[in-house]
């Protein structure tokens, strides 16, 4: 489903060039739950940003469902992200002026869904993550775990082909982290493709496959113990 | 940018950002917009009003709505009684005052002058012969009496003097201009019109910001008529006040059609304004617009800074919005909508302040300028034009910073990278 060929990412800082991803070849099949792991600075997040079209690789190809993403315009990428990808960020990335329901409904409205239907869908998604009673609360009125669950609701409300999660438990306590990971496992069971960056082995093991990066290269791909 | 979907999302975001952002910040921005609006309208309005106040005062105190005066080739209005009858027959006419006007020399202190070589205390002045009741009814002349009393019908050998004919009321000693010294109510002065000389008593002093009043002397019409030998009752000026809602142009044209133009100049008060007054008014309007333009630029920069800081501090969220697939143009449009909101609310509050409070207040309590009672001139059409300018400027000032931030790389925005 996702095919990565000869992927490079280089950052320039004045005259200094740093290659963060080096010649990565990789494939992810539909319905897989992948955990990308590695030590700090290994290039895990950078790799995920390339896969999720939030960044542009310096070189190489990423093909999603047969569509070459390197030839897409910025507008086409935005539209692709809106309709086919879902994101869960480390710091929840909710819009502070929008209530939980509004945060979830926003991408649906952008897809052209009628307001009533968008909010019904948003409420359903929030219900799925156990936030039925927090629909009209602003992010500032929610705990970190609750905010991350809103973020997951927003990511899944439009049934994306792929769900990307960048260190989704990094800012959460153990109990909230386990809740979040439980939600991911449940989504995976329902057939959702998930690509998650984490540095916590305990949560990496909850994925189906663990991809380990070191110094910008994939050094190990293994099935997790829970697979 | 203007797709219905972008509008919908922009509106969704703008409304919520405005509703849930700091009320103090919103109030401050709206306050700036109100001040800008008032600056746009009031600066030019006062500058124009300063002249307009003078023009209105001349109309009220001298010309009234329509003025009929002698032709340049004649010394008086021929067939004045017939013309007055024609004027009185017009349904629009509310009141009129016919005046005799003659040049004269006034002399004071002649009784106390002992040295024949001493320069006599004289002043040149125009004397108007009026029907005191009709004139007061038309122009309210008695309101301007600051010393003594107003004329009554039959007040023979009595005179009212404009304050600029008396030395103590002239603030600056003008070398080319002579005035009467030590003159007040009860003083005897001599009037000389041609060969006719007469001693009269000063009954009152008039002080007005209208030069046509303050530079003139007034006596009852019948006496002046006798002094200038106008036994045919031909007058020099007829000031006409119209009923409310009547158009002076229509009355002027009617009089001209009736042949009055053959014997007299017929002018509306606007026609009778000297060209330099119109030029000054236009210049002040231009000056006001220039000063207002600076206000508009300052307001635009303020909005620019506010939106820029707002967008900059929300750069991460703008990145997230783009990241989750929200169209950049919808985000830009949401900032433009916020700018429009600030401009519209500011202008709306400004409009209420202007037309409900400021304009009526200044009309009731004119600004006391040395040469006029300044009013606030703010016609609705001009005000709406200024609102359009303000809204347009704020749209640009809101769009540019939003565009600058939205154009930045999505991931850099999310991660807060430069």
Give structural notes.
The complex is a heterodimer of chains A (227) and B (418). Chain A has 227 residues and is of the alpha/beta class. Chain A has one domain (2-223): Rossmann fold (3-Layer(aba) Sandwich). Helices cover 34% and strands 29% of the residues of chain A. Chain A has helices at residues 44-51, 74-84, 100-110, 115-128, 144-156, 174-189, 201-204; strands at residues 2-13, 16-28, 33-38, 59-64, 67-68, 85-88, 162-166, 193-197, 209-214, 217-223. In chain A, the strands form two sheets. In chain A, strands 6-7-8-3-9-10 form a six-stranded mixed sheet, sandwiched between helices. A four-stranded antiparallel sheet of chain A has the order 2-1-4-5, covered by helices on one side. In chain A, strand 9 and strand 10 form a beta hairpin. The longest helix of chain A has 16 residues, at 174-189. Chain B has 418 residues and is of the alpha+beta class. Chain B has two domains: 4-58 and 276-415, no CATH class; 65-268, no CATH class. Chain B has helices at residues 4-20, 23-63, 80-89, 132-139, 211-214, 221-228, 248-257, 275-313, 315-323, 328-364, 380-406, 410-415; strands at 66-70, 93-108, 121-130, 145-148, 158-162, 188-193, 196-206, 216-220, 237-242, 264-268, 367-368, 373-374. The longest helix of chain B is centred in the N-terminal third of the chain and has 41 residues, at 23-63. The model of chain B has no long low-confidence stretch (mean pLDDT 90). The chains are: A alpha/beta (227), B alpha+beta (418). The A-B interface holds A 49, 54-55, 75, 78-79, 81-83, 85, 87, 89, 93, 95-98, 102, 106-107, 109-110, 112, 138, 154 and B 5, 8-9, 12-13, 16-17, 19-21, 316-317, 320-328, 330, 410-411, 414.
């Amino acid at each position: 489903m996702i095919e990565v060929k000869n992927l490079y990412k280089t950052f320039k800082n004045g005259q200094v060039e740093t290659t963060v991803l080096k010649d990565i070849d990789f494939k992810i099949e539909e319905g897989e739950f992948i955990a990308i792991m590695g030590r700090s600075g290994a290039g895990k997040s950078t790799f995920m940003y390339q896969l999720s079209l939030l960044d542009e690789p310096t070189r190489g190809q990423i093909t999603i469902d047969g569509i070459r993403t390197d030839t897409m315009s910025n507008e086409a990428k935005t539209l692709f992200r809106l309709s086919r990808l879902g994101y869960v960020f480390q710091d929840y990335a909710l819009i502070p002026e929008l209530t939980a329901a509004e945060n979830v409904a926003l991408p649906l409205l952008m897809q052209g869904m009628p307001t009533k239907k968008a909010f019904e869908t948003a409420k359903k998604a929030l219900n799925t993550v156990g936030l039925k009673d927090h629909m009209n609360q602003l992010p500032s009125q929610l705990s970190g775990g609750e905010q991350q669950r809103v973020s997951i609701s927003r990511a899944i409300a439009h049934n994306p082909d792929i769900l990307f999660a960048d260190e989704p438990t990094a800012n959460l306590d153990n109990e909230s982290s386990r809740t979040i990971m439980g939600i991911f496992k449940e989504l995976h069971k329902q057939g959702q493709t998930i690509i998650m960056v984490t540095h916590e082995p305990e949560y990496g093991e909850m994925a189906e496959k663990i991809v380990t990066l070191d110094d910008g290269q994939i050094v190990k791909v293994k099935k997790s113990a829970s697979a | 940018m203007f797709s219905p979907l972008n509008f919908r999302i922009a509106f969704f975001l703008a409304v919520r950002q405005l509703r849930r952002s700091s009320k103090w910040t919103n109030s401050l921005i709206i306050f700036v917009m109100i001040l800008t609006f008032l600056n746009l309208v009031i600066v030019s309005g006062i500058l124009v009003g300063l002249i307009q106040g003078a023009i209105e005062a001349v109309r009220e105190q001298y010309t009234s709505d329509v003025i009929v005066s002698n032709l340049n080739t004649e010394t008086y209005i021929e067939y004045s009684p017939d013309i007055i009858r024609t004027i009185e027959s017009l349904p629009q006419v509310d009141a009129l005052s016919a005046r005799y006007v003659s040049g004269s020399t006034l002399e004071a202190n002649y009784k106390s002058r002992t040295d024949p070589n001493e320069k006599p205390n004289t002043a040149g002045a125009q004397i108007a012969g009026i029907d005191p009741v009709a004139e007061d009814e038309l122009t309210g002349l008695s309101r301007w009496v600051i010393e003594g009393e107003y004329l009554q019908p039959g007040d023979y050998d009595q005179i009212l003097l404009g304050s600029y004919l008396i030395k103590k009321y002239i603030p600056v000693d003008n070398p080319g201009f002579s005035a009467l010294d030590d003159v007040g109510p009860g003083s005897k002065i001599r009037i000389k019109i041609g060969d006719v000389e007469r001693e009269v008593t000063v009954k009152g002093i008039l002080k007005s910001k209208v030069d046509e009043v303050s530079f003139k002397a007034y006596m009852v019409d019948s006496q002046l008529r006798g002094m200038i030998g106008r036994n045919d009752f031909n007058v020099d000026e007829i000031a006409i006040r119209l009923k409310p809602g009547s158009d002076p142009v229509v009355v002027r044209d009617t009089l001209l059609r009736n042949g009055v133009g053959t014997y007299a100049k017929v002018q509306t008060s606007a026609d009778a304004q000297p060209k330099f007054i119109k030029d000054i008014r236009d210049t002040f309007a231009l000056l006001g617009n220039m000063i207002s333009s600076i206000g508009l630029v300052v307001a635009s920069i303020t909005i620019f800074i506010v939106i820029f800081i707002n967008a900059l501090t929300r750069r991460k969220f703008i990145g997230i919005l783009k990241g989750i697939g929200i169209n950049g143009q919808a985000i830009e449009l949401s900032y433009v909508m916020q700018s429009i909101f600030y401009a519209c609310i500011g202008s709306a509050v400004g409009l209420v302040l202007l037309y409900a409070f400021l304009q009526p207040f200044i009309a009731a309590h004119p600004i006391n300028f040395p040469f006029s009672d300044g009013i606030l001139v703010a016609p609705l059409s001009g005000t709406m034009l200024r609102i359009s300018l303000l809204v347009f400027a704020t749209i640009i000032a809101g769009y540019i910073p939003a565009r600058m931030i939205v154009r930045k790389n999505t991931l850099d925005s999310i991660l807060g990278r430069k």
